[in-house]
Specification:
The protein is α/β, with parallel strands linked by helices and 483 residues long. It has three domains: 32 residues; 213 residues, P-loop containing nucleotide triphosphate hydrolases (Rossmann fold, 3-Layer(aba) Sandwich), CATH 3.40.50.300; 196 residues, Ribosomal Protein S5, domain 2, CATH 3.30.230. It is 24% helix and 24% strand. It is built from eleven helices and 23 strands. Strands 8-7-9-10-6-11-12-13-14 form a nine-stranded mixed sheet. The chain has a seven-stranded mixed sheet with strand order 17-18-16-15-19-22-23. It is globular, with a radius of gyration of 27 Å. It starts with 5 loop residues before the first strand and ends in a 23-residue tail after the last helix.
Length: 483
């Protein structure tokens, strides 16, 4: 019989050690190591006694089988999942507290029941009472037949209630950190409990064909709390992003076995719940002002959808020894690289200035194609020369100052043309000229091979000269020309 001993497990990454420490050696988190008792288990081999599994031919399984996907009717939600809910799949939804995770999943359960899902929808909460859930549903106008509410935290009780012949089509567990398996001695929310609870619920979903949603808390870094293995156990990981003081919410798929990753769905938080936004580009640009320096419109790609968003930059003289660099919605390391290229390759001076960069609308941009738009906004703010209001910008910037081609330029230009933009500052079309970016009526394509071309155009007033009266033209000497 093996001797029971103490085991110290990090609650951030799940790493185990034989002694306690203030800092986890695996992930570097402080005060995250908790003692968990090991159960006495007799060691034994796996030589025999197993149950033989049954194999099926790949050709015998139809990927287009009926009822494989369940369309909820919420178009933005179905888009992120790749076309709807997949029966037997497990979806992990994470987000900041109060961002709207519970509201979204309650709306999904009501929508699935409203369209007549093959089975009822179960919403099980470990944080709220049934009366509180019903009150929220009534306030949002979601009191429909086919949605069953329950308040429970015991995984054993949940399995006994769902593992039936008439299992629900959709089940929501809110949240996985409140669930516990009574065969473990650790408290709910610990690594062992989260891993065991999720494993039991996922096995039930696979066996009964239930579309399972697990709500996960997030850490202060914005990552889903608990062991990293939790994200590997599920089929889809969704992050609900946005500022609580802002009405826009972004649902982003960072992992999806049944659809594209990095797909986004855009919602607007209202008094009656989350409303889907069918045209996010128009919404992100609704409050944009023309002829303002430091503003550039970026044509980006989020998943399979082109999205136009405004990038704002502000440079101001600094009195600090180390000027500030504040970034919202973009990578701060990427901003430092673009600033270094502008200073080293183009001769611009940002060293004595505070630099502030903001992606309007609450969207977070990760693709390198935003480099050229950021550079245009920075140059525009430094020179006080507005980027043309009818122009979109996209392109990747290299360390040598060259502007590199990016993926799907035709889709970006078509989205810009649809919203009335008439000009585009884009990378050279890989030696094919402007036609290499696709034929888009109404868009004048101006190719930028090097950042010096962009600096020279703004300094000479070629890009924005006709947008301002002659009395307000900036002095061309404020930005050095390297043409």
């Amino acid at each position: 019989m093996a001797k029971a001993s103490a085991n110290y497990v990090c609650q951030s990454c799940g790493a185990a050690s034989t002694r306690w420490g203030g800092r986890c050696d695996a992930c570097g988190a402080w005060n995250s190591i908790v003692e968990e008792a090991l159960r006495e288990v007799a060691p034994r081999g796996l030589a025999g006694g197993g149950r033989r599994i049954e194999f099926e031919s790949l050709t015998a399984v139809s990927l287009e089988a009926p009822n494989l996907r369940l369309v909820t009717g919420i178009a933005e939600f179905d888009r992120v999942l790749g076309g709807g809910l997949v029966r037997g799949s497990a979806v992990l939804v994470g987000g900041d507290p109060g961002i709207g995770k519970s509201t979204l999943l309650l709306q999904v359960a009501a929508a699935a029941a409203r369209i007549g899902a093959p089975g009822r929808c179960a919403y099980i909460s470990g944080e709220e009472a049934v009366a509180q859930l019903r009150l929220r549903a009534q306030r949002l106008g979601l009191a429909v037949e086919g949605v069953d509410l329950a308040s429970a935290t015991s995984v054993r009780d949940i399995l006994a209630s769902l593992d039936l012949a008439g299992a629900p089509a959709v089940a929501v567990i809110d949240s996985i950190q409140t669930m516990f398996v009574d065969s473990l001695d650790s408290a709910p929310g610990t690594v062992a409990q989260v891993r065991a609870s999720a494993g039991e619920l996922i096995r039930l979903a696979k066996r009964r064909g239930i579309a399972l949603f697990l709500v996960g808390h997030v850490t202060k870094e914005g990552l889903i709390a608990g062991p990293r293995v939790l994200e590997h156990m599920v089929d889809t990981v969704l992050y609900f992003e946005g500022e609580r003081g802002h009405q826009f919410r972004i649902l982003r798929a960072v992992k999806n076995r049944f659809g594209p990753t990095d797909e986004i769905g855009v919602f607007e938080m209202t008094d009656s719940g989350l409303k889907e936004v069918t045209n996010p580009s128009a919404l992100f640009l609704a409050e944009r002002r023309d002829n303002v320096s430091g503003s550039a419109v970026f044509a980006g790609i989020e998943g399979t959808r082109p999205v136009l968003v405004e990038i704002q930059a502000l440079t101001a003289p600094s009195t600090l020894a180390a000027p500030r660099r504040a970034v919202v919605g973009w990578d701060s390391g990427r901003l430092a690289m673009v600033l270094a290229v502008l200073e080293s390759r183009c001769g611009l001076a940002f060293g004595g200035r505070d630099v502030y960069l903001n992606v309007a609308g609450g969207l977070r941009i990760a693709e390198p194609a935003a480099d050229l738009a950021v550079a245009a906004a920075l140059i525009s703010s430094l020179a006080d020369v507005p980027v043309p209001g009818n122009a979109v910008v996209f392109g990747e910037v290299g360390l040598g100052g060259e502007v590199r081609a990016v993926a799907q330029p035709a889709s970006r230009l078509k989205e810009a043309a649809k919203l009335g933009f008439a000009r585009a500052l884009v990378p050279v079309g890989r030696g094919r000229g402007a036609r290499g970016h696709g034929s888009t009526d109404g868009i004048e394509v101006n190719e930028i091979a090097h950042l010096n071309d962009l600096v020279a155009a703004l300094a000479a007033g070629e890009a924005a000269g006709r947008a301002r009266p002659a009395s307000k033209q900036p002095k061309p000497t404020r930005v050095p020309s390297h043409g």
